[in-house]
Backbone:
């Protein structure tokens, strides 16, 4: 076997220092550079004589970097004795910038006074360019998120009445709150509209799911109910048409509670029908709130849904409360908000529709510690003497 | 929200004595006063706090509208004073907090007995013959610095690196949060700080002030300290033989002595 003679390794301390694969310098307590290695000089283009005893490390930074040095890096060094992975730009003698990452240790003497700061400087041109791209990508993502969120809110506004109509003889209040932080379009909707001088329709519904897909179903449901209200007089017939439209569209299914209000010579008559939706409540002074109508089939699932109308004659001061399951199925620590709490709320805040919607929403939110896991829609109507 | 929780207010010293309120500058937290504040505990009621977004404050209380000017921060000072029912307050503010204290003292002069302005600057950007020390481009570079360092830090946060065994100045937990803030908050605070111009406010500060200037400060140069001293109606001026912008850390004894002498006058 032929032995190849290995060249000698120069492992003198001098060489390890001067030729280390990173820039290396130390500074005195006043900040002035006391010693600097060859790698640092080669990286930055400075002469040793420019730096030693003349400049401090902060002098080599951009003005912005100097502020960062003074407000973050130096305090960190003083307080923790070290600073790690600080990104800075060194200004070279020709004015160009060298992006670097810096690690530094503070050494103290026996009395605890700072003696020297040792600084290792790593060139970071490629890494910083990559980080800038990451930052730009992050900023773009934030802009997109804001845009999506504002789009969701705009879309949301088209799914509920801009301003509920003024109907003589009825006082109306509504609350709507999409789930979560409001960045997504909710699946609940409500609508109140007149179909003649003595007739009006109130609908509260819940489309399965959230987001854009739910929004298209919501729009379809809302507009189909409006169109159906022109052709049909009974709420069950209107919901039948909505069921057909949903089946034909194959886009999704929803539950709706619908009340048609009709003014007769004896006052208002309310005809209620539920397509798989929680039944509206009728609240009358000195009586417990009672549910109106019978549970029917969820809409958009089968061709022949079971839908039944129930007509009730209303008195002055009667309240109709329509809501979505975001109210009753709101989850607290151990149980759901439930119908008992809902009825208690109605009794507590009646007879003002506004007080009921606001108070109920507040209590439901509080019940789930301020975070709505599901959309919440509440509509309350009160029969008042005509003007 | 309760300002005491919002700002992680810590009260030590003598309950019934004159209160001294320490406010940290842009960048770190109330820890900046750890070598100075304890000295005053034997004679004063000492209160420390963090600006929202820093140290132990509640970052959810950050309101970009409120904190779009230094007035929002001055409001915080007044709210803290009110919550603790502080009267005859000695306010010690470092860096931008010096100006914030001046604004608070203009709003409620009756609340403040004296102000100590450590390394103050009423304007950081040069303007005509006024030398603040920076140009607008410099401030843009600072904002970029903040963002680059946010990236470096976010990845380094996870494993707390081995502690410095010989001199554990800060606990690891503190070190992990020290000088670290939500980058959005840090950016807006930097913009509000370094783009502010409070020169016209200085003549309205009625309380006696101490201007503490470092002999070699890269952020608030001596000429700025002299300007502040000359413009305030009633101020003493002390130059500390210290390098840098944080004498509360780099020269705590001299800083303490100067404040102490001013308060004994």
Residues:
């Amino acid at each position: 076997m032929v032995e190849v003679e290995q060249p000698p390794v120069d492992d003198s301390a001098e060489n390890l220092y001067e030729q280390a694969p990173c820039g290396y310098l130390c500074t005195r307590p006043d900040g002035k550079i006391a010693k600097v290695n060859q790698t640092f000089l080669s990286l930055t283009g400075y002469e040793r004589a420019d730096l030693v005893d003349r400049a401090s490390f902060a002098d080599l930074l951009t003005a912005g970097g100097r502020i960062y040095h003074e407000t973050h890096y130096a305090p960190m060094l003083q307080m923790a004795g070290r600073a790690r992975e600080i990104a800075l730009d060194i200004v070279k003698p020709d004015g160009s910038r060298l992006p670097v990452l810096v690690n530094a240790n503070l050494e103290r003497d026996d009395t605890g006074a700072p003696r020297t700061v040792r600084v290792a400087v790593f060139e970071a041109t490629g890494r910083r360019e990559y980080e800038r791209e990451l930052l730009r990508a992050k900023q773009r993502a934030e802009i997109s998120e804001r845009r999506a969120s504002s789009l969701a809110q705009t879309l949301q506004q088209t799914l509920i009445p801009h301003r509920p109509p003024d109907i003589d003889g009825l006082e109306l209040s509504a609350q709507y709150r999409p789930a979560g932080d409001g960045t997504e379009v909710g699946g609940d909707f409500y609508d109140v509209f007149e179909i003649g001088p003595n007739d009006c329709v109130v609908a509260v519904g819940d489309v399965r799911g959230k987001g854009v897909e739910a929004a298209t179903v919501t729009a379809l449901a809302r507009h189909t109910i409006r169109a159906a209200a022109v052709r049909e007089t009974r709420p069950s017939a209107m919901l039948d048409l909505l069921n057909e439209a949903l089946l034909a569209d194959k886009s999704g299914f929803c539950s709706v509670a619908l009340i048609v209000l009709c003014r007769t010579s004896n006052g208002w008559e309310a005809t209620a029908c539920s397509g798989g939706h929680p039944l509206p409540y009728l609240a009358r002074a000195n009586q417990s709130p009672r549910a109106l109508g019978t549970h029917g089939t969820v809409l958009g699932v089968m061709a022949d849904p079971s839908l039944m109308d129930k007509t009730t004659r209303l008195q002055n001061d009667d309240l109709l409360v329509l809501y979505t399951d975001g109210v009753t199925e709101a989850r607290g620590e151990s149980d759901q908000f439930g119908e008992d709490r809902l009825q208690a709320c109605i009794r507590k805040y009646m007879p003002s529709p506004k007080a009921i919607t606001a108070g109920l929403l507040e209590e439901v939110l509080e019940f789930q510690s301020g975070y709505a896991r599901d959309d919440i829609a509440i509509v309350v109507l009160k029969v008042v003497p005509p003007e | 929200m309760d300002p005491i929780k919002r700002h992680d207010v810590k009260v030590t010293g003598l309950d019934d004595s004159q209160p001294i309120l320490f406010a940290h500058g842009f960048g770190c937290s109330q820890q900046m006063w750890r070598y100075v504040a304890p000295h005053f505990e034997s004679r004063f009621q000492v209160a420390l706090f963090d600006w929202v977004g820093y140290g132990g404050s509640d970052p959810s209380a950050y309101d970009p509208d409120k904190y779009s000017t230094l007035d929002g921060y001055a409001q915080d000072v007044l709210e803290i004073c009110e919550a603790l029912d502080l009267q005859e307050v000695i306010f010690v503010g470092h860096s931008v907090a010096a100006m914030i204290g001046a604004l608070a003292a203009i709003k409620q002069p009756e609340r403040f007995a004296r102000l100590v302005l450590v390394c103050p600057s009423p304007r950081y950007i040069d303007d005509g013959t006024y030398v603040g020390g920076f140009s607008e481009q410099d401030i843009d570079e600072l904002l970029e610095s903040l963002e680059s360092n946010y990236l470096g830090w976010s990845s380094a946060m996870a494993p707390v690196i081995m502690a410095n065994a010989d001199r554990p100045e800060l606990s690891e937990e503190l070190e992990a949060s020290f000088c670290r803030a939500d980058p959005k908050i840090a950016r807006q605070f930097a913009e509000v700080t370094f783009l502010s111009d409070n020169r016209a406010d200085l003549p309205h500060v009625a309380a006696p002030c101490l201007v503490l200037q470092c002999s070699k400060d890269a952020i608030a140069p001596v000429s700025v300290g002299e300007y502040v001293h000359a413009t305030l109606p009633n101020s003493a001026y002390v130059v500390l033989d210290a390098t840098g912008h944080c004498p509360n850390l780099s020269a705590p004894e001299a800083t303490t002595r100067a404040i102490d002498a001013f308060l004994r006058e």
About this structure: The longest strand of chain B covers residues 235-243. The beta strands of chain B are 10-13, 19-23, 45-49, 89-94, 112-118, 209-216, 235-243. The domain at 3-123+197-264 of chain B is CATH 3.40.50.1820 (Rossmann fold). Residues 152-168 of chain B have pLDDT under 50 and may be disordered.
